[in-house]
Design goal:
Blueprint (H helix, E strand, L loop, with lengths): L11 H7 L3 H9 L5 E5 L7 E3 L14 E6 L10 H14 L4 E6 L9 H10 L2 E5 L4 H16 L4 E6 L3 H11 L4 E5 L8 H16 L11 E3 L6 E6 H10 L13 H8 L9 E6 L4 E4 H11 L6 H13 L3 H5 L5 E7 L1 H5 L14 H17 L21 E3 L10 H4 L8 E16 L3 H8 L8 E5 L1 H9 L4 H11 L1 E3 H6 L1 H11 L23 E3 L6 E5 L7 E14 L5
Parallel strand pairs: 3-4, 3-5, 5-6, 6-7, 12-13, 15-18
Antiparallel strand pairs: 1-9, 2-8, 10-11, 12-14, 14-19, 15-19, 16-17
Helix pairs in contact: 3-7, 5-6, 9-10, 10-11, 10-14, 11-14, 16-18
Length: 570
């Protein structure tokens, strides 16, 4: 049995199977024994990493300036406060002439801040980067620290113990052997002595000379994983793939060479063609064949391949690196538009968001396998949703364009009506509905209380959409009404956990997720009793889906849409 380097396990039963030749196994199968499968490896891989050596550490910090850089704004607690106080005390005790300067990122943790990095390059001799109890914040703290090391500034990065694997995986992907110091979760409960020990560990990390490993330059290249993963019965394949963490926990279809070849007939693109070189979360390189292998596992059919390839493209380019890793338990919603939906029999009507349709279910499921096997996702390493999300199993459907009175989603996003597309949204931790024969203001009222309102998607049944259309409302009118009526007082808005962390920097002109959200800056100066829309205007969207029996609607936290053409992958 061939497995990837570093993958665990040999199994006695499989060694017996593998001691036989394939022809012997096939003969046994023909004679009435249990069928045996020779299954392909579903894993993509990291194409290569450029190594960045660490910057030299000064042994004596007297006369030096240490920047303590917090990933969160000054008005937000990170959870590391007690440890930082101990570090300051330890620095002062060992190096009385050291200067400590506290800096806070003015933008959200995921956003570049060139002026801060330039300031550190000019004025700091060392840095200590402080994230929070967040997987995405930890990831970005490692990313920005790697950048500071490249600028010649030596540093150390804190992280909570529960996020240690996430921090190490990010540093490995960056090719920077950062000095990471793990802090127990809830450090405020530690004894003074234990905090002092941690502080000494941090100071030692700041000053210890570089090891040979930390001075390495050049690049690391990685061999593609073995083509075949295992040979065995259906039960053995299921067990093996599950043990390797290559499944979503549900049974899979064994990806044999024959079935994968059949899957590849669904596209004109060569098996070796690269779909993306940056599949999330780990930035792996993905070929068309690897998509096909995972498509077989998910239960897809060859005619689904163009949608699946477009989904990989949309996901990889969608700026989802924070959400896929987040402790906030995101899921991803796929909306298919255009002729392809009818061609492959996707459900856009009754029960479109539920089970029962092969294309919807298998295409939705495939994305999760892509995240695991094509992007290197692993629960409790770089997939850190605190509670998880049922929408992560399968969340794909087609818009009911035939029954809608309005232009479909892909036309609103700049595509022709006769084009086929897939659009991926991230979010999904809150939704409201089903609302039966309700005024659109009721939906707006409920979604106003969703946390971190970057964006929402209103899913309207055809009956609800047509009733609104008969009232003379276009889709844009409906989106406008939802936006206008999804309001809070400024006191309620300011008291929200996410307002302090994300929205204040945006109101001050910072970007978030590579875009400029359009909350007006004057929100900063409004009195507490002022009532304001809580969503950016351009991030309220309407999609028509479902049957025509009743005027139902739902509202979902779903934002940051990324659309890719299906037609290019036919």
């Amino acid at each position: 049995m061939k497995v990837e380097p570093g993958q665990a396990g040999t199994f006695a039963a499989w060694r017996v199977v593998l001691s036989l030749s394939l022809s012997t196994l096939l003969c046994a199968s023909a004679a009435g024994a249990e069928p045996v499968y020779r299954a392909l490896n579903p894993r993509a891989y990291l194409a290569g990493v450029k190594l960045t050596p660490l910057s030299p550490r000064p042994a004596d910090l007297n006369g030096k300036t240490v920047y303590i850089i917090h990933a969160w704004p000054a008005n937000v607690q990170s959870g590391f406060e007690s440890v930082i106080d101990a570090v300051k005390a330890a620095l002062a005790a060992r190096f009385p002439q050291v200067k400590v300067v506290v800096k806070h990122k003015e933008s959200a943790y995921a956003e570049d801040e060139p002026e801060l990095w330039a300031d550190a390059e000019k004025n700091a001799n060392l840095f200590l980067y402080v994230p929070a109890d967040s997987a995405a914040t930890t990831m970005w703290s490692v990313v920005w620290s790697s950048g500071l090391e490249k600028r010649g500034i030596p540093g150390t990065v804190l992280h909570f113990e529960s996020l240690a694997n996430n921090a190490r995986a990010t540093a490995a992907k960056a090719g920077t052997p950062l000095r990471l110091v793990a802090v127990p979760d809830r450090p405020e409960n530690l004894s003074r002595e234990r905090r002092a020990e941690l502080a000494q560990t941090v100071v030692n990390a700041m000053t210890a000379p570089l090891s040979e490993q930390e001075r390495k330059t050049g690049a690391l290249s990685f061999e593609p994983p073995p083509r075949f993963a295992s040979v065995g019965t259906l039960a053995q394949i299921q067990d093996y793939y599950y043990e390797q963490k290559w499944t979503d926990g549900l049974p899979i279809v064994p990806p044999t060479e024959e079935d994968v070849a059949q899957m590849l007939t669904g596209t004109s693109h060569a098996a070796s063609e690269v779909v993306t070189r940056s599949m999330l979360p780990e930035g792996w390189q993905v070929s068309v064949e690897k998509v096909a292998i995972n498509a077989v596992m998910a239960g897809c059919q060859p005619e689904h391949m163009p949608v699946l390839l477009a989904a990989v493209e949309a996901f990889a380019k969608g700026g989802f690196s924070s959400t896929v890793r987040s402790t906030n338990s995101f899921s991803f919603m796929q909306v298919v538009n255009g002729p392809i939906a009818r061609e492959i029999g996707m459900n856009s009507g009754t029960y479109a968001l539920g089970p029962g349709n092969r294309a919807n279910a298998a295409i939705g499921r495939a994305l999760r396998l892509f995240i695991y096997n094509l992007g290197g996702g692993q629960n409790e390493v770089n997939l850190m949703g605190t509670q998880g999300n049922v929408g992560s199993y399968s969340f794909a459907y087609a818009e009911n364009e035939a029954a809608s009175p309005w232009e479909p989603l892909h036309v609103s996003r700049g595509y022709r009506k006769d084009e086929s597309t897939v659009t991926i949204f991230s979010g999904g931790w809150s939704h409201t509905g089903n609302m039966l024969h309700q005024d659109i203001k009721r939906l707006a009222r409920d979604i106003a209380y969703f946390q971190w309102p970057t964006g929402m998607v209103a899913l309207l049944s055809p009956a609800a959409a047509n009733e609104l259309s008969r009232q003379g409302l276009s889709k844009k009118n409906v989106e406008e009404q939802i936006w206008q009526n999804a309001t809070l007082t400024m006191k309620e808005f300011r008291n929200d956990h996410y307002y302090q962390r994300f929205i204040i920097p945006i109101l001050k002109g910072r970007e978030m997720g590579g875009k400029k959200y359009r909350w007006p800056a004057y929100y900063l100066d409004l009195p507490d009793d002022a009532r304001v829309p809580v969503y950016p205007r351009d991030d309220v969207r309407v999609v028509v889906v479902g049957g025509e029996a009743n005027a139902m609607m739902q509202g979902w936290v779903m934002a940051s849409p990324s659309t890719a053409s299906v037609d290019k992958w036919r």
